[in-house]
Amino acid sequence: MLKKIVLENKLMMHERYNIILITLDGLRKDRIESCPTLKSLANSNVYFSNMITVSPYTLASLHSIFSGMYPSLHGVNAYYNMFKFKKNEITTLSQLLQKKGYYTCCDIISDVIIPSSGFDERNIFDEKTVNFNKRHTDLIRKLSDRKFFLFLHYTEPHKHLVDEVIQKYKNKDDAQYYKSQKENNTRYDSYLPALDKYVSDIIKTLDESKISDKTILIFHADHGTSVGEKIGEKFYGVFVYDYTINVFSIMKIPGYKHKKINSQCRTIDLYPTIAEFVGLTAADLDDKVQGKTLSGFIDGSDVDDREAFVETGGLYGPWPSPNKHNVFCVKINNKKLIYNDTPQTWEFYDLNTDPNELNNVFDNNSQEIIEMKKKLLSYLKENQISTKLDST
Predict the structure, then answer these.
(1) Is-contact 134 152, C-beta < 8 A?
(2) DSSP strand pairing (215-220 vs 103-108)
(3) Considering the domain 326-391 in this protein, what is its CATH number?
(4) Are the beta carbons of 312 and 79 closer than 8 angstroms?
(5) 247 vs 61: CA distance, rounded Å
(6) CA torsion sign, 281 to 19 to 158 to 180?
(7) I need a surface site. Which of 250, 355, 362, 387 has the fewest CB within 10 A?
(8) What does the domain layout of the chain look like in residue ranges?
(9) What does the pLDDT look like over 273-324, one tens digit per residue?
(10) pTM, whole model, 2 decimals?
(11) Architecture per CATH, 2-299
(12) In this structure, are residues 336 and 358 in contact, taking their beta carbons and an 8 Å threshold?
C-alpha cells in the first residue's frame, strides 16, 4: 500500500500529509524496550532498527540529516565548525519542504544545531527550564489547521547527563566513571519514563487535534550514549562504536501497518525519504545528496544492507580533535573497520561474533580487512577528507 501511496500518487501525498520529525537526543536503541509507548510505536509502525548515524554527536548528525550529506561535505565536520555549514551551496530539507508549500517550523536547543535556511518559524528553548511536553504539544495544536513541517528537538536526557555526569566527574578521576557501569545504567534508565511520557503526549495531541490521519510522524535518535563501555568516552562523539552509532528511526505513516526493517541504512537517508513523501524524486534533488530513499525497504523492493561511513572528532577523550574529525569507520555486513587518525591505529571487529567490539582482529590482515580498508579510503577520498594516511 505504501508503495502505491509513495510511488504512484506523490501529488496526493504532497497534498495530504504534515510531517513531524522528532530527535530524541542521545537515546540508546537498546532502551526502546524500556519505553512502553515508544516500544508500542515501534511494534505497530515502520521501524528501522539498524540505522547508522553518520556522526555520533548532535551538531554533525543533524546537519547531515538536513542536508542528506556526510559532515565533511556539508562543512560541519567538527564541534568547532558549527558555523561552517555551506548554506549557499546546499538546499536543506526545510527549504525543499518550504518550496512544496509547507509552513516550516522548528523548536531547537540552539540557533546553530541545525541549518537556519528554509524555516518560516524558528523557536529556541532554554534546556534548563523548558517543559517539553507542554511546549511541543502547544506548538502542534497551533499548527494543526495548516499544512506544516515541524522539527522538534527533545533533549531532556541530555540535560540530566550534563548535570549528573559531566559536572560530577569533571574534577574527578575518570576511572571512577568507567568502574561504575551499574550506576551509570541506572542513572540513564531514570530518564526514560519522562521521555516515554513525552512520546505519549505527542501522539495524544495528534489524535486530539484530529490530524493523526494526515501526519507522518518520525521519531529518531541522532546518536546513542555511552554508559562507560569504553575507557575514554563518557558521553558520545569520541569513538565510533555501535553503542553510539547504531541508532533507529520509527515512522508512523497513515495507512501503513507494522514493518520492522533490520537492513542497515543511514541517517542521511532520511532526507531523500522525506523528500519522496512530498512528491519529489532523486532527480529533483541536488547531485550532492549522498543519502538514498528508504522507500524500497518499506515496500519490500530493497532488502540489502547499505554501506555506512561514520566520522567524528571528540571534545575530550584520548585524542580530542574539536577542529577536525579524526576518527572514521566503515561498517559493512556487520563488520566494522575503524581508523583513528591521531595515533594512526586501526581496529576491525566482526559484530556477528563480537557485538561489544572487544576483540580487535585488525592484525589478522585478512582479505576482507584489506577490501574494507580500500572502502574506507574510498570514502575518505569521496568526502575530501585529509588524514595522515595521505603522506604514507
Answers:
(1) no
(2) unpaired
(3) 3.30.1120.10
(4) no
(5) 11
(6) negative
(7) 355
(8) 2-299, 326-391
(9) 999 999 999 999 999 999 999 999 999 999 999 999 999 999 999 999 999 9
(10) 0.95
(11) 3-Layer(aba) Sandwich (3.40)
(12) no
